[in-house]
Amino acid sequence: MKKLLALTSGIALCASMASANDDLIEQINNPDQWAIQTGDYKNQRYSKLDQITADNVGDLQVAWTMSTGVLRGHEGSPLVIGDTMYLHTPFPNIVYALDLANDGRILWKYEPKQDPDVIPVMCCDTVNRGVAYANGKIFLHQADTTVVALNAETGAVEWSVANGDSSKGETNTATVLPVNDKILVGISGGEFGVRGSLTAYNMETGDLEWRAYSMGPDSDILMDPENTMNLGKPVGADSGTNTWEGDQWMIGGGTTWGWYSYDPDLNLVYYGTGNPSTWNPAQRPGDNRWSMTIMARDADTGMAKWVYQMTPHDEWDYDGINEMILTEQTIDGTERKLLTHFDRNGLGYTLDRETGELLVAEKFDPAVNWTTGVDMDKESDTYGRPAVVAQYSTEQNGEDVNSTNICPAALGSKDQQPAAYSPDTELFYVPTNHVCMDYEPFRVSYTAGQPYVGATLAMYPAPDSHGGMGNFIAWDNVAGEIKWSIPEQFSVWSGALATAGNVVFYGTLEGYLKAIDATTGDELYKFKTPSGIIGNVMTYTHEGKQYVGILSGVGGWAGIGLAAGLTNPNDGLGAVGGYAALSDYTALGGQLTVFALPN
317, 343, 365, 415: which one is catalytic? Predict the structure, then answer.
């Protein structure tokens, strides 16, 4: 009888796994919807919708709007499932369900009761990158690290679980990723000495299935010393501790607040880890593995298949959390499963996502000067490592020394603002920061729940350039080169969208939604929304008509001065002074703006 029960339980579990994943995949594969923050599991942010084209996009009009009622930075995008749009806000992380068939009527509203003491613990504004949908549920990861499963029809809480402890500096700004029967969840707080992790919870119950830390013993980081590979070689025993001094790894950073992607055929999840703690490199000798690392993990077990550390012993806060975009493209006559990543450090990487082989590592902003490039010689002892330019090494220059004119600044040549990929053009459309910095590290002590930064920064536009702080570029990931570039006055902090209509959309910090010809980069349309845009463009159809939606509401790291009312140039980890002029162009206010062609 026990064997029969075990067998039937196993069958039920497999059926549950299949139905949960199949449901979401079905929703994602319907281009009339926007069922996942990343557009699809590959993170391409590409839509097959083509009613709006390069020929007619200039006729776009505002179809409808909605105020979110929240003033801080609005990242992420709405979801559309059937006739329902799910809209989120920054802290306090309100979720709205809107009836698209009834003039956007509010079907339900979920407003969590969070302790406002979490606000000052959040590094770079109280942003949230959106909710997720799967198996009849809406999943929200709140600022205070509570993960909530809401009934998609009623908004009722089906389960909730605390993923961290905000009193220790653990917070959340990211979305979650539903995969098979699990919800994958990261953590923020690298500036508070948090040890980063990726955690899988059961989609139906909220039970913890596995947790993989970014650094620590092999059992904590879920790595097999012989079978987890790094640039074609086993990582070896104790890889998560033996490049740290003493027990520094216990407060080592490597947080996981970016984007996650998934290959169902390989059953591998891909994501990046953030900066090591502290920002003062002298206090943490060694490579500080596995901070600043691309991770490929088995979705069911969490075990790492391969890893690649982009910036060993980070000296500049170049978090590696930016999205991993998955494509199938031909290299040297052979089609390969690729992963492309635009890192904060200013290098665009292309890897074989099955093996972790490094194929391309090139600068995607010509201002990058902290490195001369990555050693691509597989026989070299420094294979895969960037060569650091001594003049811009905050480690070599020493503590309490102001290293100047480092490019890029700590917020990187690109931060979390996601790029898009078009399989039609085989180009990546990348919102970038064109910003440099001065960086002065100093000694700092660790106290749980208190800032653990250890550096003073100043930011400014890249010198000897167009004078602005951003570019929007088209990138060839096989050749490793920029195809065209559009200069912008401020960093492009909005996520891009590519469409089958040969149109690419993005937003600007001044508040413009822009439409660009995907082939030439020519501007086809722009409209100024009520506040600066740091949200991600999405598209859907309703009753046969294509719409484009964008959240405006200035904030994020670049807009923290406006969002939090800061005026000291060094506040916001150096961003307040760098983006001081932004207040001349926009003001606070969260709004969804939806566009369509005229009838």
Answer: 317
